[in-house]
C-alpha cells in the first residue's frame, strides 16, 4: 500500500493523489480510548468524504497541538471501498474484502462502502490489544449518575443499549465501546452511532437534538424538497443510523471516563416472551448470560432477517472478540468481584406471548426499571425465584405494573408459556455446550459455578 504523507492540518484533510486515481484522498489522524494512559493512535485513509466525516465523528478528535505532535500511528486503515477486490483471488468468494493484519498494524477495505466496517475493525483491534494489557474491552454502553455511580449496558443491536445509556438524568460516558482498567472505565470512541428508526423528539429527545450539522445519517428517507427526514420509513432498511460526536449530547461526560462500575446490566430482546423484564443475577449467573449473549435479531438489524430470530453472540459481541469468550468472562468476573458490582438481566423484548402474539415491553417501563437499578432501590427489593432459569424477580417496582414482572402472569396460554420456556432453556444449554471444556479461574471452580447457574431442565 502507498505511504501517504501525514497531514499538517486538522483532520480530516484531503490529499491530491496521482493522476488516474480517485479525485481526493482523505486522511484522519485520531485516537481511541479516552484514558490517556492506554490511548491508541489511528490513521484512516479513505477515498470518500462520507467515510472521513463518519470516522471524524466516531473516533476521538485531537486538538491542534495533539495533531501537530501525532507522530507515527499505532494502526492504519486504508478504505478503498469503491474499488472491488478480485473475487477470483485464492480464497476470495466475493468482490468485498475486509482484511486486518495485526502484524503490520493495517486494515484494508475493498468492495464495500459501509462506513461501519471501519468502526467494527478498530473495535476488533482493541479487543486484541487491551486484554494483553490486563484491560477488559467491552461492547457496552456506559453512563454515570451525579453521585459518581457508573452503569454498564451490554447488548446487541436492537436491545436498547444506546437508548438506555443515553439518559438526560445521567452523564453519558459512551454508547457502544468501552475499556475497564485499574483506572476505571473509559470510552473507546469519540462519538455515538444511534439507531433512529421511529425516532421522535418525545421518546428520545437527546438523540433527536443530536441530529444537526455534522451528523451523518445512514439509510434514511427524506423529502427532496423540504429535506425533512421520515424516521418511520423502513423502505431501505429498519437499520437506520445517526453518527454524531459525543459532545452533541448535552450531558456527555467529557473526558469520557468514570470510576469502577456499580451495576452491570445485560440487555436481551427476548422474542420468545418468557424472560422477565428484570432479574437480579449472582456473579455466576452474570458470567453465564454474558458468555451466552442471548437476544433476538430484529428485522433490519441484520441483512436478510425479516422476523425476529433467537440468537446467541458470546460476550454480546462475538463478531468483534479476538480471544476466547471465557478470557473476557474471567476478566469481567474478577473486576466485578473486586469492585462489588451487581449484575442484572433486563428483557427489552416481548411480554404476554412470543413475537407475533405478545407485545413489546414499553420503553417507559424499562426506563423505570433502569431508574430503580441506578437509585439502588431495586437491590433491596423483595424477590421470588423462577423455575428453570432460577432467576431472582422483584415483586414490585415503582411505575411498573406488578403483573408483568412475572412472565407467566401475562400469558393467557399457560401450557404454551411452559413449552416455550423449556424450548428457550434447551437452546441456552445447547449453545453453552461449546464452552463446557474451558477452564475459568485458577482452580476451575468458577467454571462449575457458571455451568450450575444455567437453566435447570
Explain how this protein is built.
The chain is an alpha+beta fold and 457 residues long. The chain has three domains: 13-132, Phosphoenolpyruvate Carboxykinase, domain 1 (3-Layer(aba) Sandwich), CATH 3.40.449.10; 136-190 and 256-452, Phosphoenolpyruvate Carboxykinase, domain 3 (Alpha-Beta Complex), CATH 3.90.228.20; 193-248, Phosphoenolpyruvate Carboxykinase, domain 2 (Beta Complex), CATH 2.170.8.10. The protein is built from eleven helices and 26 strands. The chain has helices at 49-58, 64-68, 116-132, 161-165, 205-210, 283-292, 325-339, 363-375, 407-410, 414-432, 445-452; strands spanning 13-15, 25-32, 40-46, 75-80, 97-101, 106-110, 136-144, 150-154, 171-174, 177-181, 184-187, 191-195, 216-218, 221-222, 229-230, 241-245, 257-258, 263-268, 278-281, 294-297, 309-312, 342-347, 350-351, 359-360, 383-385, 392-394. The strands form seven sheets. Strands 7, 8, 9, 10, 11, 17, 18, 19 and 22 form a nine-stranded mixed sheet that branches. β25 (383-385) and β26 (392-394) form a beta hairpin. α6 packs antiparallel against α7. The chain is globular, with a radius of gyration of 22 Å. Mean pLDDT is 90; it is low at 1-11 and 15-20.
Number of domains: 3
Largest sheet: 9 strands, mixed
* Global structural class: alpha+beta
Regarding quaternary structure, what we see is: single chain
**Strand share of the residues?**
15-25%
Radius of gyration: 22 Å
Number of strands: 26
Gap from first CA to last CA: 56 Å
Shape: globular
CATH C-level class of the largest domain is: Alpha Beta
Mean pLDDT: 90
Architecture per CATH nomenclature, i.e. the level-2 architecture of the largest domain: Alpha-Beta Complex
Q: Unreliable runs, pLDDT <50, ≥5 residues?
A: 1-11, 15-20
Helix content: 10-25%
Instruction: Predict the CATH topology of the largest domain.
Output: Phosphoenolpyruvate Carboxykinase, domain 3
- What's the total helix number? 11
Amino acid at each position: 500500500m502507498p505511504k501517504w504523507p501525514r497531514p499538517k492540518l486538522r483532520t480530516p484533510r484531503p490529499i491530491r493523489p496521482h493522476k488516474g486515481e480517485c479525485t481526493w484522498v482523505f486522511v484522519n489522524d485520531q485516537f481511541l480510548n479516552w484514558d490517556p494512559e492506554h490511548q491508541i493512535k489511528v490513521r484512516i485513509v479513505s477515498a470518500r468524504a462520507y467515510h472521513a466525516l463518519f470516522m471524524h465523528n466516531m473516533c476521538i478528535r485531537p486538538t491542534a497541538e495533539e495533531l501537530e505532535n501525532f507522530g507515527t500511528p499505532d494502526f492504519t486503515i486504508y478504505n478503498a471501498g469503491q474499488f472491488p477486490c478480485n473475487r477470483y483471488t485464492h480464497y476470495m468468494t466475493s468482490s468485498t474484502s475486509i482484511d486486518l493484519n495485526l502484524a503490520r498494524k493495517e486494515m484494508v477495505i475493498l468492495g464495500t462502502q459501509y462506513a461501519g466496517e471501519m468502526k467494527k475493525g478498530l473495535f476488533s483491534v482493541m479487543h486484541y490489544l487491551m486484554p494483553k494489557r490486563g484491560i477488559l474491552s467491552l461492547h457496552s454502553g456506559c453512563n454515570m449518575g451525579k453521585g459518581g455511580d457508573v452503569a454498564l449496558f451490554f447488548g446487541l443491536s436492537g436491545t436498547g443499549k444506546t437508548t438506555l445509556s443515553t439518559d438526560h438524568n445521567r452523564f453519558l460516558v459512551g454508547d457502544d465501546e468501552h475499556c475497564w482498567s485499574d483506572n476505571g472505565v473509559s470510552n473507546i470512541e469519540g462519538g455515538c452511532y444511534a439507531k433512529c428508526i421511529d425516532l421522535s423528539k418525545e421518546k428520545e429527545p437527546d438523540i433527536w437534538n443530536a441530529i444537526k450539522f455534522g451528523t451523518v445519517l445512514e439509510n434514511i428517507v427524506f423529502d427532496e424538497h423540504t429535506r425533512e427526514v421520515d424516521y418511520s420509513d423502513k423502505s431501505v432498511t429498519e437499520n437506520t443510523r445517526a453518527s454524531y460526536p459525543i459532545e452533541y449530547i448535552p450531558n456527555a461526560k467529557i473526558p469520557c471516563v468514570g470510576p469502577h462500575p456499580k451495576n452491570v446490566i445485560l440487555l436481551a430482546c427476548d422474542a420468545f416472551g418468557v424472560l422477565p423484564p428484570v432479574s437480579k443475577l449472582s456473579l455466576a449467573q452474570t458470567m453465564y448470560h454474558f458468555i451466552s449473549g442471548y437476544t433476538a435479531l430484529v428485522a433490519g438489524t441484520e441483512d436478510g432477517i425479516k422476523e425476529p430470530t433467537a440468537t446467541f453472540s458470546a460476550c454480546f459481541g462475538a463478531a468483534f472478540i479476538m480471544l476466547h469468550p471465557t478470557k473476557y468472562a474471567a476478566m469481567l468476573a474478577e473486576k466485578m468481584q473486586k469492585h462489588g458490582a451487581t449484575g442484572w438481566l433486563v428483557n427489552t423484548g416481548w411480554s404476554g406471548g412470543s413475537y407475533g402474539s405478545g407485545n413489546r415491553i414499553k420503553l417507559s417501563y424499562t426506563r423505570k426499571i433502569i431508574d430503580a437499578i441506578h437509585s439502588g432501590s431495586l437491590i433491596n427489593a423483595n424477590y421470588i425465584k423462577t423455575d428453570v432459569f432460577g432467576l431472582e424477580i422483584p415483586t414490585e417496582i415503582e411505575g411498573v405494573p406488578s403483573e408483568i414482572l412475572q412472565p407467566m402472569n401475562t400469558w393467557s396460554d399457560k401450557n404454551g408459556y411452559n413449552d416455550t420456556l423449556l424450548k428457550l432453556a434447551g437452546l441456552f444449554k445447547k449453545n453453552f455446550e461449546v464452552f463446557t471444556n474451558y477452564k475459568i479461574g485458577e482452580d476451575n471452580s468458577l467454571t462449575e459455578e457458571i455451568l450450575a447457574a444455567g437453566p435447570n431442565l
